[in-house]
Amino acid sequence: MEQSEVNEQMETASAGGIGAPAQVTSAARPASSSIAPQACPTCGVAPATNGGGAASPSYVYAIGRIEPRFPRASVEKEFAQATGRAGTAGLTDRQALQAVLSKPENRYLVRQLCWVMTIEGLETYILAPRDPSDFGLLVESLRPSPQPWDLDCVIGFRGPIAGPEVCNGLMVPIVAFDQIYSFDRDTLIKAIPKPEKTTAKEFAPAAEELFDRIMQLADNAGATDEHRALNYLAVRYQAIYAHAADAFARNASLTGVDVVPSPLSGTRNVVDVIFSYTNRNTDVTEKFFCRVDVTEEFPFLVTKLSPYYDR
User: Fold this and answer.
1) How far apart are CA 24 and CA 183, in angstroms?
2) pLDDT value of residue 107
3) How far apart are CA 277 and CA 250, in angstroms?
4) Residue ranges of the domains in the chain?
5) CA–CA separation, 219 vs 273, rounded Å?
6) How far apart are alpha carbons 121 and 105 in whole angstroms?
7) pLDDT tens-digit profile of 115-133?
8) What pLDDT is stored for residue 268 in this prediction?
9) Phi and psi for 95 in degrees, rounded to 5?
10) 161-174: per-residue pLDDT in tens?
11) Distance spanning both ends of the chain, measured CA to CA
12) What dihedral do alpha carbons 32, 34, 40, 41 form, nearest 10°?
């Protein structure tokens, strides 16, 4: 398949369709929940339908890392020629990659590349912007000197499985994104206001542990309602970190993070995110929860963090 056809495939898949931390790059675009990802012409996988009607949208709110790949040898050779013209002496390979792709005259290369999102080291999604102007967000996700805790938050629609010709044989779902936040964990933690009675030295480890626990929950690919709610809270709701620091100060351990359907769900899809803390001396467990509406592409907070009582 010619490269132009591959690009057309990814653009078609993306046509129907992704509080921000500090140092964020984003271009928020309102999206209607009625817009669903379209079928990829040659992927052989069509989005699910409800009773043969319109496709049911599958939303993604994922946190991982974005990296470019060469889908075929010809694209890699073209990039090498562009690099030779760019004057990249003294730069590392990663710095040269970022420098070349950042140049406006090389935007055609950005469109030719395959952009892969990895989560916990696993290749999880291929990314395609719903708006062609958002290729810039992919370029901005490149760091000249990447660090282990660099993260990207991708919000959008999960489409069909990519065909083997799209990304050099990689067959994972295509995500048509509306929004990307690029940040690192340390900057995120530093941007969170700490509680008055907690020192910065005490607060940072508490916030880091809670963030890591959320990220390491099994199979958190940001595609289920539960994981979308957790990822939303991780990057948008600072109160959960302040409460974790307070619990650790009271000699309590974080013993559980659970997500259950809210009894208030009706026409809206609402979940309760429950944080359990167990006192290390008395073994008594206290639970706190907040409600998140995950009905549409962009989750939002319904109920602030409050005590939770088992029913």
Assistant:
1) 6
2) 93
3) 10
4) 3-185, 192-307
5) 17
6) 32
7) 999 998 899 999 999 999 9
8) 93
9) -65, -40
10) 999 989 989 999 99
11) 57
12) -120
| CA 298 to the chain's CA centroid | 12
The position carrying tokens 């592409």 is 297
Give pLDDT tens digits for 26-64. Answer: 333 433 333 333 333 333 333 444 444 445 679 999 999
* SS3 of the chain: CCHHHHHHHHHHHHCCCCCCCCCCCCCCCCCCCCCCCCCCCCCCCCCCECCCCCECCCEEEEEEEEEEECCCHHHHHHHHHHHHHHCCCCCCHHHHHHHHHHCHHHHHHHHHCEEEEEECCEEEEEEEECCHHHHHHHHHCCCCCCCCCEEEEEEEEEEEECCCCCCCCCCCEEEEEEEEEEEEHHHHHHHCCCCCCCCHHHHHHHHHHHHHHHHCCCCCCCCCHHHHHHHHHHHHCCHHHHHHHHHHHCCEEEEEEEEEECCCCCCCCEEEEEEEEEECCCCCEEEEEEEEECCCCCCEEEEEEEECCCC
Of the listed ranges 153-157, 177-181, 207-211, the one predicted with least confidence: 207-211
Q: Hey, how many other C-beta atoms are within 10 angstroms of the C-beta on 27?
A: 14
Query: Which residues, at least 6 apart from 3, have a Cβ–Cβ distance to it below 8 Å?
Result: 71, 72, 74, 75, 112
Q: What pLDDT, in 10s, does the model give residues 255-270?
A: 999 999 998 888 899 9
pLDDT reported for residue 253: 93
Q: How far apart are CA 21 and CA 234, in angstroms?
A: 10
Q: Token digits for 259?
A: 């997500």
Q: Which two tokens stand for residue 256?
A: 């559980």
Apex CA 139: angle with CA 190 and CA 207, to 5°?
20
